[in-house]
Amino acid sequence: MKDEIAIWRSVHPEPLSAADAEEYSKRFTRKIHRWLDSGYGACFLGAPEAGEAMENVLRFFENIRYRLGKWVIMPNHVHVLVEPIGNHHLETNSALLEELFRKTDQRHIQALGTGMAA
To answer: What is the pTM of this model?
Structure first.
């Protein structure tokens, strides 16, 4: 699918028209969400210790960079709503959370692969 998305993006440069955004959503975003919601892929976050670690990630900058709203940790992905605080922008918070997610994910993949706690 990565190749298909890359080809599609090369033909539909930013900024996308409303029609192109809708087409992208239908072709890719909705499909990916259906896969995630059906449990496709690695479900490391289903392990209690991985879920707890992810909660710690979500709370790491809580009330410092953002107000943490509703969130849910699914076995293979996370949904989270945050409200930036002060000069902290959503894009900056998103990048920080993604980096923390990657680090947490890597530690738990290694831990689950070896049978050892992270």
So the answer is: 0.60
